[in-house]
Batch of 2 targets.
Target 1
Amino acid sequence: MKIVIIDYGAGNIQSIKFAIQRLGYEAVLTSDVEEIQKADKVIFPGVGEASSAMKMLVQTGLDSLIPELKQPVLGICLGMQLMCNYCEEGDTKGLGIFDVDVMRFNHDVKVPQIGWNEISELESRLFEGINENEYMYLVHSYYAPICDATVAVSDYGLQYSNALKKDNFYGVQFHPEKSSVAGEKILQNFLTL
Amino acid sequence: MLTKRIIPCLDIKNGRTVKGVNFVNLRDAGDPVELAKIYAKNGADELVFLDISATEERRKTLTKLVLDVAAQVNIPFTVGGGISSIEDVDALLKCGADKVSINSSAVKRPELINELSGKFGNQCIVVAIDAKQIDGTWKVHLVGGKVPTELDLFEWAKEVEERGAGEILFTSMDNDGTKDGFANQALAKLSSELNIPIIASGGAGNIQHFVDAFETGKADAALAASVFHFKEIEINDLKQKLRELSIPVRL
């Protein structure tokens, strides 16, 4: 199985690579279009600021490649947010895979949300073997509201999407690579889809 | 619901843990990676590695440690100690650190906070503040609490937030090492005045101190070293107790 992690200069990619290694697989970091097209599984990471991350995707042509991919694609954190229509952060147009706009948490809660929150209403093979209300590690200031693509819900001042799915595209707001054994199980589920 | 975090802190010198640890089942008690793995398994929510080495090799040693931890540990971790430039942070994040913590370098040049959060995002920038009370007011101190500054804790914390810190790690030098509990009044004031998470540090001696830090101090997370290293408190017992008291924790 060929696993690629899309490399566009975004954040903590090393941790994802290591987590995949712990599961007994190898992942290749690449921005090469052909290599990404040929992969069995594609991971689309992202840490940092939305508009500058999007700019890097546009510069490398990855913005048109990603929505066309046919194999399972997993967006993580900012990766998931960029797969949505729009991100309030930096007034950024997203890839439009998930039909939802990513908004900033309002000020009834501390921003960023940092730490472990529960995921519930789990509705995807991604969560096979994962209990309702399992804890996942999150670090984020923006969130995707509940929408048709929602497959996991969390509560932080309001209910929001902690995971999204449409066709072959999956997105998680939490960091499976940092979410202990349960997170590794979710990564494993994705890799064996 | 977002849970309160329990964070063991490991002091590191030349790639090895410094303070004594009392883990009988550890092959090598000086190996931070072994220790980190045990903490992750025992329910720690996050780890902090504080590097106190002062050699020219330090960055090389530290980045190697970060790589090793990231390869083997499946929970988030923060690295602090002597970080003073974008290059330092870039190297540590690239090796797999989730967050970096800056302290003296931010006091000396506050713009560093803006630069780092602008480049890497505020979510990975922790500003550590050491403070103690002098004549009834909390003053920020440097060099592990040895050197006083004119900065007021609460004013500095506010500035740190405005400049783009994602989180504040507040250590009360009055409480640190006393095992008498955290500085809950100052914590509560920080937590109510700021809109970013506050990590409480300094003073943990028993389980009730953690309860107080969350209930009275309104802390989002609590950090401790020796009570965990010497097994005076088992993280699982601590979290069970917190849950019994309806304080949300990950179990």
Target 2
Amino acid sequence: MDGAANTRAVAGAGTGEDALVAAMVAYQRGTMEAFETIYSALASPLRGFLRVLARERTVADDLLQETFLQLHRVRHTYEPGRPVKPWVYAIARNVFLMHRRAGARRSRHEAIADDELPEIPVPPDLEALGDVPTLRKALARMPEARREPLVLHHILGMSFREVGAALGISEGAAKVRAHRALRELRMLLGSSG
Amino acid sequence: MKPVNDGQPLPEALRRAIEADPRPVRPLAPPPVRVVWVALWAAAILLAVPLLFGLRHDASSLGFVPSWGAAVAECLVGLCVVLLALREAVPGSGTGLAVRVSALVAVPAVQAAVAAFTWLRLGRPGGRFPPAAMQCLPMESTLALPALALTVFLVARAYAVRPRWAGVLGGAGAGLLTDGVWHLICPFADLGHVLVWHGGSVLALAVFGWLAGSVVERIRRRRFREAR
């Protein structure tokens, strides 16, 4: 397929996972517009995910850029036809882990200021548990292993299968962790309220 | 769920970085296809090594299934473990902890099962401690090097987000499939020899894989730190 055909394929693919898959295939064939489509679709939820992990807005923005650079370097590892999101989120999580390991000594001694709490879109069903600032504070207090599946499934809307693939755990483990996280979140909100 | 296109503009610095390398790339073949290369190597040495070095002297009293059957079974389990390593090397394709741990437990279990079956079949030949014929350890490890190098190459072509896991699975898989071949030519059947020296070879390869993964992770971390 030539460049113009790739562009038409990306533009005409509509929205959703199919559009992302089409964009990834075109991107692997060297179409810049396809990369823009992928960035446009995933930058916002990825930024939210990285803010929840990194807990600092500036760091998360930095990691977002690094994630897309990494994604570009390893774009040949995407297998056409497979879901794009687990592949991208696995890379993003790896970028965060590299950041954390690289600066582990520093972060152990740094407290997190309240104004650096993550800003992520909170869906209405979770908002029912409490107001948005309280919810964000409670999320920030949760252990990372539970926070990740909670955010990926309940906030970013990924299926448990996609969450499991992104985190390198089984679908069942993703379901159990997300369920426990939701229960813990309710307890945290109950104790803080 | 959020709509796919929420109109995030592409930052200029990122655009420039991406445009600096716009070449098309060929996607990696799926892990079950890539593992065929290792399978071909396994098949080649499975046929060539007994031809070159001769079958073990007790092969006829052992029978077809405990000799060739066990060797092929070890090779197949080893290939499955290599397949897991190749899956682990693709972001978003890794398996859960239970599967990875089960695979690592399966490697010595299959090796021990083959050793025990052979030992029982041959009338429980006695051994001594420390077991004789230590040379099996370096010889089997050397025979495993091409399979290990091939596996490491296939893993390195991808991007393992958990390189230590990819490494240890690759090493253990390559070690087990080579042990299947070694089972056909090694004349020692006492349990101590097989468990210590053959098992030691597989363990050494798994440890090598783990260390290789650690080196990859360290290099990545250093590059990441330097780039910021």
